[in-house]
Design goal:
This protein is mostly helical. 31% of the residues lie in helices and 0% in strands.
Length: 88
């Protein structure tokens, strides 16, 4: 009796390379992006941008709180003036 022919099924799409974490997309303005790149340059360019962001988030979360959290409600948004818009 002959053996069955095995079929190698190929997986579709790009392989996952970053593990099973959740993607968090962040848009950075030019000044913050320049500060991030300066931080990377201070580390002899050994960090990629995503690695630098992960490191800074980890450091920020591990740092002690500098003040007590607010207990009073924030001011209403109607009191905040909109810049660049004329009164209509």
């Amino acid at each position: 009796m002959e053996q069955s022919i095995r079929v190698n099924t190929k997986t579709r799409g790009r392989p996952k390379t970053t593990g099973k974490g959740h993607l968090v997309g962040v848009r950075l303005l030019p000044d913050l992006l320049a500060a991030l790149d300066a931080f990377r340059a201070a580390h002899a360019g050994e960090l990629s941008r995503p690695e630098a962001v992960r490191l800074l988030v980890r450091r920020g979360l591990d740092a002690p709180l500098c003040c007590e959290p607010r207990t009073d409600p924030p001011p209403p948004l109607s009191n905040i003036p909109l810049l660049g818009l004329s009164d209509r």
